[in-house]
Specification:
With 302 residues, the protein is of the alpha+beta class. The protein contains 5 helices and 16 strands.
């Protein structure tokens, strides 16, 4: 084996969605805007090594943490399709990893600011009084808007930028449950393929209202892959589409495998919502780039 490069990451999941937070790599970045452009256009080998199988999989997302002169730190995102440049869950994942590994100091007021290519976002961290360990993270959306509504679907925009197409559960799928995963996957791929030439969207959401303020949902990304969590944007989209402008006391959105986000309306605002949740660090990894490995850049099975 000839080691050409070594990369170090901290892996964290947010209700099932995996984020690989890159703490050491040859990817040297400067400022946030040029960072995201560089990550989109360069570092193909490093991105493939970290995200593709056999070291990663389709559900793994990458985050690079860098210093910031106007926030506690900055985050740039790496995604398989090079299209996803922002994720609320990614912000929570990075803060969790930095706090729990002692790479950022615990603040008395618990408020951290994170710079991204979309702006700077505050996150409130709540710590356990006795253990001083991280207990919950709280984040709020910007304005969400119902753009279009018909008998069959709703089109919702999150933060003036990310669009989602919502569908209620069709009769051909009895319920959102692992027992019907094959039917759900088939519906999702067909729907994504039908829509993606007509409208730009971040995701297609299949939702089933199971109680007054409770939903089960599945979110399909632009390549038809299933998001591995209930989805923060998805939860904000459900609040926007199904609450008709009311601020829900609490809306619960569950994934197909049982993880959940709970969202509330932000007091004094119109169609802004907040979520509090607890991400978890799952491990630290060192990845080796060996140019003699025939699968040096990996593969993806979808």
């Amino acid at each position: 084996m000839k080691i050409n490069q070594m990369l170090t990451t901290i892996d964290t999941h947010v209700c099932g969605e995996v984020f690989r937070i890159i703490t050491y790599s040859p990817m040297q970045l400067a400022q946030i805007k040029s960072e995201q452009n560089a990550l989109t256009q360069q570092f193909h080998k490093e991105k493939a090594l970290l995200l593709n199988e056999p070291r990663g999989h389709r559900g793994v997302n990458g985050c690079i943490v860098t210093p910031s002169n106007k926030a506690d730190y900055a985050v740039s995102f790496i995604h398989h399709e090079n299209e996803r440049h922002f994720s609320y869950s990614g912000l929570l994942a990075t803060l969790t990893a930095l706090l729990e590994t002692g790479n950022i100091q615990v603040k008395e007021d618990g408020i951290y600011h994170i710079e991204t290519i979309k702006g700077t976002y505050p996150i409130h961290a709540r710590f356990n009084n006795s253990s001083q360990g991280l207990e919950l993270l709280h984040i709020a959306s910007d304005v969400c808007k119902l753009i279009e509504e018909s008998e069959n679907y709703s089109l919702v925009e999150i933060d003036h930028s990310r669009k989602y197409v919502l569908f209620q559960l069709p009769k051909i799928i009895p319920e959102i449950d692992m027992a019907y995963l094959s039917d759900i996957l088939k519906w999702g791929k067909q729907t994504v393929n039908r829509l993606k030439e007509a409208v730009h969207f971040e995701g297609v959401i299949l939702a089933d209202r199971i109680a007054d303020n409770e939903f089960k949902s599945v979110t399909f990304e632009r390549d038809g892959a299933i998001l591995r969590s209930p989805g923060m944007d998805t939860t904000f989209a459900l609040c926007t589409a199904f609450e008709n402008g009311r601020e829900p006391n609490e809306l619960v959105n569950r994934s197909i495998f049982g993880s959940e986000f709970r969202a509330k309306g932000v007091e004094g605002s119109e169609r802004r919502y907040s979520i509090q949740t607890r991400p978890f660090v799952t491990g630290e990894h060192q990845f080796i780039y060996d140019q003699e490995d025939p699968l040096e850049e990996g593969f993806l099975l979808k």
